[in-house]
Specification:
The chain has 17 helices and 23 strands. By secondary structure, it is an alpha+beta fold. The strands form 7 sheets. A 7-stranded mixed beta sheet has the order 9-8-7-15-18-17-19. Helix 1 (2-10) packs antiparallel against helix 6, helix 3 crosses helix 7 and helix 15 crosses helix 16 (485-495).
């Protein structure tokens, strides 16, 4: 237990730093930046100082070593960090005493120091973070509780002072931050060629070989509760992002997928299994920039378009600037672990690119902004699916069951994970995402509820567009940056009742919300069943090579199939067949 406490202390700096992302010299903990501002004469930084700082940024350029930046960051003073360094020293002394006791055990158990309770916070030099013995434990606990209450008041007072000062000086920093962020977004890890593909051309941003077919969009207004994601950058914001290739078909159904960084086999499994169902709508993908695409991916995707018949691929190459958790520049999203800013997606009223209005966040969170932009390209009665790319296998036409009912609008369909195996409160990850975003008090009523998967959602365009505004708004409200917080937002929106009006009626754009239990809907989420073979549960037919619903019918979409050994082997074999067939078609 003491070893774990020491580990917590060793990692304290990373947990207590609040990064302020500016420039390649970054970052400086925001808390310390504010303290430094308070130490300046007159409080705020002068206009002359500010201009000098910005000029220094441009003079230094983007070649400064990230290692130097990290060393400067580590040198920043912090009361929290200094306190935990002292705590570490105190706990190391406890460890020495306990090791000594293993050699010379006391006669009286009350004199033992083994197994005593400890505090995970520095309490001062006059009060150790542990009692001197088991016999003194109760008295020490009283003193510890009293000291923690005193320290909490000090923390609150200091924090309130910092926030007050922050509000006073932010106006003075706006111009500096805008200039630095703009420079950063165009300089980090991007070649001149890649930047040129995104520059303004006659009032429009070029988006690849098909830019003329998809006009730039004036951002629509949202609602007070869920504004348009673009409104964070201003009410007159325009959407500049355009496909690298392919063209949307507004009256068609579409599947929206964030699919960056994968090799050809992932795209083959997704698209070829989809084609085999008879689906002929749009598939809208976010893929890696061309220089980072894996071999043959672009050629394969470009071979699937409206002119060749069947499925129609619309591909976007999104320009990201990413950072490691330490704040250093990174080469990519690192499977969602790194935090990223989206470049050149939004513009001002004149069509000039503007900086991403949001702080760096996981791409798994930022993807909902992409989905929202794409959803605007479709008619309100079109069916849209939001689905993961890596672990999806199509077995039946994904919208056939829905389109058979005729034209409808405003429907939103959500898909759960197996409630007999996992609930929100019993899932360490799902519970953590909700608690981190909203606080345990606000979400504890949902701990007995089934988990609803955020990686699989279907709805009409009007319902999906509203849902996506809601998802982005939840991030803007909570600023939860853990990878996976989007699933927390997803579950909170449903269980809190936000997706319907307070009187139980529908909200604008969403007339009906349907939650499908695992194995009883179009999308079958099977990850929670990983401890038992699907075949033993009656959910996999090895002879027909099909993932099944609980009633024995074929699942239209098998999601998370790779958690099952037999199903995963089956799909791997199909991937090889797809690749062989595609390469043979080129010769």
């Amino acid at each position: 237990f003491v070893g774990f406490a020491v580990l917590v202390v060793f990692t304290a700096k990373g947990r207590h730093a609040h990064w302020h992302y500016v420039g390649p010299h970054m970052p400086e903990p925001l808390l310390d930046k504010l303290k430094r501002g308070m130490d300046n004469k007159g409080g705020a930084i002068s206009r002359e100082q500010k201009n000098n700082n910005v000029q220094n940024f441009y003079d230094d350029g983007v070649s400064s070593s990230s290692l130097d930046a990290t060393q400067r960051m580590l040198a920043q003073p912090s009361r929290f960090v200094e306190s935990e360094k002292k705590l570490k020293r105190q706990l190391l002394k406890l460890l020495e005493k306990q090791n000594a006791e293993h050699v010379h055990k006391p006669k009286d158990p009350n004199d033992s120091i083994l197994g005593v309770k400890i505090s995970n916070r520095y309490l001062g030099e006059d009060l150790l973070p542990y009692p001197e013995s088991k016999g003194e434990e109760k008295e020490w606990e009283k003193k510890m509780d009293q000291r923690k209450a005193e320290l909490t008041k000090i923390d609150e007072k200091e924090w309130n002072e910092l926030i007050h000062h922050y509000n006073e000086v932010m106006e003075d920093h706006i111009e500096e931050n805008e200039r630095v962020n703009h420079a950063l977004s165009f300089s980090v890890e991007r070649s001149e060629q890649n930047n040129a593909q995104q520059r303004i051309d006659g009032g429009n941003v070029r988006g690849g070989e098909n830019s003329g077919k998809n006009k730039a969009i004036q951002s629509p207004k949202g609602t007070k509760q869920w504004p348009s994601p673009s409104e964070k950058a201003g009410s007159d914001t325009t959407i500049l992002l355009k496909p690298a290739f392919g063209s949307h078909r507004p009256s068609d159904d579409a599947i929206l997928v964030f699919a960056e960084g994968y090799d050809l086999s992932i795209y083959l499994a997704f698209i070829e299994s989809l084609i085999s169902t008879g689906y002929s709508g749009d598939v809208v993908l976010s893929i890696s920039s061309e220089e980072k695409l894996k071999p043959d991916v672009k050629e394969y995707l470009q071979s699937k378009n409206s002119e060749t018949g069947g499925v129609n691929i619309v591909a976007y190459e999104v320009n990201w600037t990413c950072f490691k958790r330490s704040g250093e520049a990174a080469s990519g999203s690192n499977e969602g672990i790194n935090h990223c800013k989206m470049n050149n997606a939004f513009g001002d009223a004149d069509g000039s690119p503007i900086s991403d209005p949001r702080e760096p966040r996981p791409v798994a969170t930022a993807r909902y902004e992409l989905y929202w932009m794409w959803s605007l390209q479709y008619d309100k009665e079109s069916w849209l699916m939001l689905i993961d790319a890596r672990d999806v296998w199509f077995q039946l036409h994904p919208f056939q069951e829905l389109t058979a009912r005729g034209k409808v609008s405003g429907e939103l369909h959500l898909f759960g994970e197996n409630a007999d195996v996992v609930r929100i409160g019993t899932s360490r990850f799902n519970r953590s995402w909700l608690v981190t975003a909203y606080g345990e008090k606000n979400v504890s009523p949902y701990f007995e509820k089934p988990v609803i998967c955020s990686g699989s959602t279907i709805g009409n365009q009007d319902a999906i567009e509203t849902y996506l505004r809601a998802m982005v708004a939840e991030y803007d409200t909570t600023l939860c940056k853990s990878k996976g917080c989007d699933q927390g937002f997803h579950n909170y929106l449903y269980y809190s009742g936000k997706l319907e009006a307070s009187d139980g009626s529908s909200v604008e754009g969403i007339s009906k919300v349907v939650v499908h239990d695992q194995g009883k809907g179009i999308i079958n989420n099977v990850a929670a069943l990983r401890d038992n073979p699907l075949k033993e549960l009656g959910l996999y037919n090895a002879e027909k090579q099909l993932v099944l619903n609980w009633d024995g019918t074929t699942s239209a979409v098998a999601h998370q199939y790779d958690r099952d050994k037999e199903a995963n082997i089956m799909v791997k074999g199909k991937k090889r067949q797809f690749e062989q067939k595609w390469r043979a078609s080129k010769t």
